[in-house]
Amino acid sequence: MNSEAASYDEDSSPPAYADGTWPDPDRALAHIRLRATRLRDRLIRQVDEDGLVRDRCGSRVLESALLLSLLRKTRTLPTVHDGLARYLRDARPDGLMDTLIVEATLGRPGQHDRAVAYLDEFRHFTGARKRLMLGTLLSLTGVLPLDTGTDAHALRYQGYAAWTELSLCAIRILHGAARAGHAAVSATDQNYLTGRLASADPDQVWEGNALAHLIALHALHTCQPDSPLLHNGIAALCRSRNSDGGLPFIAGQDIFVTALAGKALAAAHAPRSLLIQMGDRVSELQQRDGGWGYTEITSQTDVDDTAVCIEFLRITDTARYRQVLARAERYLGAMADPRGGFPTYLHGHRREADVTAGAVMALSASWQDHTALLDTCVDFLLCAQRDDGTFENSWTRSRSSAIHRVLDALRHVPPAPADRSARITHTTLASTRYLAETQNADGGWGYRPGRSSDVVSTAHALPVIASTGDRQAPGRGLRYLLAHQNADGGYPSVPDQLGPRPLPFDCPVLTDVHVLNAFTQLHTPRRTTTTAPERPAPTRPTGSVEEPEP
């Protein structure tokens, strides 16, 4: 082994020996602290005066094409039309669906067979409903004709998240009109559609969700083309475009990002006054049911956002936010599945490991008050692991993200009976082994094996792999992260979040948050003995649920 470690001033080469092993821990952690401080200060500068962290999501091909199609139908706003066309012409497609949409939108058809194959290969727990939505989106953007064989009357749209309900109602109208004419569209469906659209501020994108708003406006155009809701909605969406001319899926995630950034900033020793400012604003945005949504303008609460808000407020000042936290814990208790586990949006919906892990961490500080519930959640998490050590991705592309979150949740479990402790150890070993075997040659991780390394996937994998006691993999991973830091302290990455699943979208500030969280976890190493043993490369488990890949 090389006996000479690298220099550790702020702009030096990343701290690792030439063979990639982890060097002297104290010197390595000092270097991490310097880089984390630069990143922390950048994140602090992104906190607005009202305490929220706001950042624009990146433009996306799908929404841009849907808006362009709507402008073509209504023959309005030619300047915006041209800007959207330029964005789509210059866009770098992220996956097959983007490629199909860009080709069709720019007048280059002939992708019918590839589009049909894409839909046929689609697998997701939402099944036929999500496939129907994707098929409708492909038809609205000109890739495929609308499937008139779909029985619109059999489609039920109530009992879902707010944007899912609106989208499904719109899809029912679109398919009903295509199959039997406009006269076949029921007044009940039209009234539901217009009632939901009218519930929002006419100057805003409905619930902050451009995709749901666009699908609804396409449906409204088929049955009420002169409605003021149509023209107001188009104007609001056009105002929401980014400087590159494209339209994002959602403008931002100010509540979710603020709470997640607050956790990272607290661990990085940001000023208490700043954390209180952020915490006060987050607490003010708690909704009547005790939960939070992802942004200020949505009425839809969910477990994921609520869990991260609870964690942040508890870290910041438990006494100050005592009543807010009590209401939020009651919200989570009401959302839990009696078998263990949590859904994202509504009680009784499918349980998800990633979401459940967040809820476990949120409730862990008061474990004694929720023992029965949390015990069943731990059992659910242990059973949710796949044979290769991964978990279902849920709302992110990155497999290391789900692993990181579940293992963090399991570390919050208090001393347990021997059999459960053994199961937790086995689960941890399987996940860390998977990460050890899927690290790329450049030291980073991709969102799944075989993909190029990206910053977000690496930021999630690195704290987990560093806890194994291995010296080589963490050093290589750290070198990858530090080599990708920008001069301003921030980080670039690829779109990682999914919405609606399986479609990726980009929220740039979250990359900085995840890396800062990784740095703070590395600076406070977690003591484990889960060294990953050698074994053959993992294979995909039978029956696993995956999003389609190009």
Write down the Rg. Answer: 24 Å
Whole-Å distance between the termini?
A: 42 Å
Coarse structural class? mainly alpha
Shape: globular
What is the H/E order?
HEHHHHHHHHHEHHHHHHHHHHEEH
Please state roughly what percent of the residues sit in beta strands, choosing from under 5%, 5-15%, 15-25%, 25-35%, 35-45% or over 45%.
under 5%
Low-confidence stretches: 1-11, 527-550
Q: Indicate the mean pLDDT.
A: 89
**Spatial arrangement of strands, main beta sheet:** 1-2
Helix content: 40-55%
How many DSSP E strands? Answer: 4
Count of runs of 4 or more consecutive helical residues: 21
**How many domains is the backbone divided into?**
3
Largest sheet: 2 strands, antiparallel
Structure report:
With 550 residues, the chain is mostly helical. The protein has three domains: 46-55 and 252-382, Glycosyltransferase (Alpha/alpha barrel), CATH 1.50.10.20; 59-248, no CATH class; 385-532, Glycosyltransferase (Alpha/alpha barrel). The chain has helices at residues 25-45, 61-74, 78-90, 96-105, 112-121, 128-140, 162-180, 187-198, 210-223, 228-239, 254-267, 272-284, 303-317, 322-335, 353-363, 371-384, 399-411, 418-438, 455-466, 472-483, 508-523, and strands spanning 59-60, 247-248, 497-498, 504-505. The chain has a two-stranded antiparallel ribbon with strand order 1-2. It has a two-stranded antiparallel sheet with strand order 3-4. β3 (497-498) and β4 form a beta hairpin. α2 runs parallel beside α9. The two termini are 42 Å apart. Residues 1-11 and 527-550 have low confidence and may be disordered.
